[in-house]
Amino acid sequence: MVKGLERGAVLFGPLPACVMIDTLPGLTLSSERVEFIPTRDAGLKRLERFVARAGRHYGSTRNYDFGSEQRGNVSALSPWVRHRLITEQDVLARVLASHSPRRAEKFVQEVFWRTYFKGLLEQRPSVWTHYQSDLIKRFEALEKDPKLRLTYRAAVAGSTGIDCFDHWAAELSQTGYLHNHARMWMASIWIFTLRLPWELGADFFLRHLLDGDPASNTLGWRWVAGLHTKGKTYLARADNIEKYTDGRFRPSGLARVAEPLSEAVDHSRQPIAPCDPPPSGPYLLLLTEEDLRGADLMPAPPEGALGLLATEGRSVQPIGELAKVFAQEAMQGALENYDAGPQHAEDWSVPILAATRQYGVRTVATAYPPVGPVRARLDKAAPALAKAGVTLLRVRRDYDSITWPHARAGFFALKKKIPAILDSLKLTR
């Protein structure tokens, strides 16, 4: 939520042929509304449009939220990267083909913030499982506390009376996207001004964001609350909001202090789960919303393909229609060459075993799923597949294998490794 491509980028180089709006001294931005079309081609076009803006000017306006109609200063790549219609490596390769690592340093770091959160949750999976169990308790508490329930309903409906918060709540529901800084402000107001449980806010985001991701979203909310970096919180201030919304909002009545939340549990670090080699013979390709380019990891075409959705596993509450449709249509496009369509199933072993019988194979290969709903469904299906004599291969991308081990504590440790990582991935000139 807090980091990782959501911030976007500033304009740099030739501006697109569209209406120009002067918003800040010396800065001319384009009026630009992003269309989140769930295809790889659309993601690559958005990346190409952004590349010229990824250099030295990125840092000067990446924190500004000018509104959904003026996204000329942001990358807005996160929905495509979230489902790996385009990958982090795609983004880095294209940006670094046009800019030196030093010139694009701030944007490159934003890509690695996403990587950091993914790797950290992979090594501290109890953060996700405790969030899920605590979320159920928070919803149960709503049923018993009329005042809390009223505040919660006002927050998700965008009727709190805090103009900026209400605007962003509506924008989230209506577009499935928010600027990164707006996400931080909303989370801070939710926790410290409205005094609502952070888990309910993280759930609201995860249900509606097109780029809703267990790692970035959960750990981002925890960062704001003071649970990620113990004792360090993020306080939304009226003057900061006024500045970085270019005067669109200056809310009153916000909390003036942000006392960090605490928790009794200690999320100990676990070894990163092992991955498997690619298949060496006939196999069924399993595509999930975690990585819709999974075929790129395999040495040969599959006998057939199966696509399984786990979007509903994001929450115990209904998922926002835009987020659902984006994931479903993205998978539909990824399956178009395989004469298959997305499927929903609570027990994934049933459709997987049916597909292996259909195509006459005993091996299923999929892109390695990080901690989250897809991983949970695969783990649950694995014993039944093994019992039926079906081998399940989870093939991890080199990018993840190289970067995740460095996400052991704070971001700084990974940040120091970025130059070496870029070299090992052959992304520097």
Structure description:
The chain is α/β, with parallel strands linked by helices and 429 residues long. The protein folds into three domains: 20-123 and 408-424, Serine Threonine Protein Phosphatase 5, Tetratricopeptide repeat (Alpha Horseshoe), CATH 1.25.40.80; 126-244, DNA Cyclobutane Dipyrimidine Photolyase, subunit A, domain 3, CATH 1.10.579; 284-395, HUPs (Rossmann fold, 3-Layer(aba) Sandwich). 46% of the residues lie in helices and 8% in strands. The chain contains 17 helices and seven strands. The protein has helices spanning 40-51, 58-61, 78-82, 88-98, 105-123, 126-144, 146-157, 163-175, 180-193, 198-208, 214-225, 238-244, 321-334, 349-359, 373-387, 398-403, 411-424; strands at residues 20-24, 27-30, 284-288, 304-309, 342-344, 363-367, 391-395. A five-stranded parallel β-sheet has the order 5-4-3-6-7, sandwiched between helices. Strands 1-2 form a two-stranded antiparallel sheet. Strand 1 and strand 2 form a beta hairpin. The radius of gyration is 21 Å and the shape is globular. 46% of the residues are buried.
Topology (elements, then pairings):
Blueprint: E1 20-24, E2 27-30, H1 40-51, H2 58-61, H3 78-82, H4 88-98, H5 105-123, H6 126-144, H7 146-157, H8 163-175, H9 180-193, H10 198-208, H11 214-225, H12 238-244, E3 284-288, E4 304-309, H13 321-334, E5 342-344, H14 349-359, E6 363-367, H15 373-387, E7 391-395, H16 398-403, H17 411-424
Parallel strand pairs: 3-4, 3-6, 4-5, 6-7
Antiparallel strand pairs: 1-2
Helix pairs in contact: 4-5, 5-11, 5-17, 6-7, 9-11, 10-11, 14-15
